[in-house]
Amino acid sequence: MKYFIFTDIHGNLEAFLAVLKFARRRKIDHFLFLGDMVGYGASPNEIIQKIQLLKPISIIRGNHDKAVSEIDNVKTFNPIAASAIHWTQQNLKKNNLSYLKRLKQGPRIVNKDITICHGAPFDEDHYIFGEFDAAEAFLHIKTQICFFGHTHFPFLYTEKDHFVEGTFITGDSSEIKIEKDIRYLINPGSVGQPRDRNTRASCAIYDSKQKKIKLYRIEYNIGEAQRKILEADLPAALAERLGLGI
Ligand SMILES: [Fe+2]
Questions:
Q1: Residue 46 class from Cβ within 10 Å (0-12 exposed, 13-18 middle, 19+ buried)?
Q2: What is the distance in A from the centroid of ligand 1 to the CA of 8?
Q3: Most buried one in 6, 168, 196, 244, CB count within 10 A?
Q4: Are 192 and 11 in contact (CB under 8 A)?
Q5: pLDDT in tens, 164-175
Q6: 146: buried, middle or exposed (CB in 10 Å: 19+, 13-18, 0-12)?
Q7: At what angle do helices 236-244 and 79-91 cross, to 10 degrees?
Q8: How far lies 180's CA from each of 14, 122, 141, 157, 161, in Å?
């Protein structure tokens, strides 16, 4: 089985289209989306519509999806993120908003090997930053592999004999070999707003037969995504950061 893992699109249609084009050439059997379709970018409607065409897919909500749906308020958001949430609420079509509202909370067990969550398996809004958070996460995971999002950093944590080790994944293509007796907690990076100073869209493929997970960085039309943000009167900082990868 080939799984395509992606997260944190955040309304960036240009990045999402580039990633979809990449996936289409790779005979994917199952899509895994880890939340945050909307927030920040100027194309939330298009993304919600396109995601519904991907089948089969296992999907969970992110904190921005939740805030736009008014399941949660924007108190914990910084002013720029909060203003993008309000813009998205005003610009979403009714049917797309109701799709967003129906998204389920993570974690979700996909099968006997894979769990998906947005922030952490013990709290969908918690950021896994460092081995301490990862060690707590492993206590709540019942499968060998768990994919998470939310931080927008491609990252690998492994656990063997209760020892947890974290590795920041750099470069435009890297491979993780899945070994017996090791458990894995992996962030594939963000599609629509990478924050690791690499401006390319990030995603991953897990080949369960070959026991390999590959992370990829995909070039996309950043200028067009920035132009749409500015044209929509969203905060200019949201366009700027795409060009810096922060
Ligand atoms: Fe996010």
A1: middle
A2: 5
A3: 6
A4: yes
A5: 999 999 988 899
A6: buried
A7: 110
A8: 38, 24, 16, 15, 12
Q: How far is it, in rounded angstroms, from Cα 178 to Cα 45?
A: 37
- 120 Cα: distance to centroid of ligand 1 (angstroms): 13
The architecture of the domain spanning 2-104+166-180+190-244 is 4-Layer Sandwich (3.60)
Distance between Cα 180 and ligand 1 center (Å) = 31
Both structure tokens of 21: 């084009």
pLDDT on residue 23? 98
Q: 3-state DSSP call for residue 245? A: coil
- The rounded Å distance from CA 37 to ligand 1 centre is 8
Say which amino acid occupies 104.
K
> Which positions ≥6 away from 180 have C-beta within 8 Å?
none
Q: What is the pTM of this model?
A: 0.97
* DSSP letters for 129-188: -SHHHHHHHHHT--SSEEE--SS-S-EEEEEETTEEEEEE--SSEEEEE--TT-EEEEE-
- DSSP conformation class of 208: T
pLDDT tens sequence across 40-86: 999 999 999 999 999 999 999 999 999 999 988 888 899 999 999 99
d(CA 63, CA 152): 13
For residues 212-227, give the mean pLDDT. 98
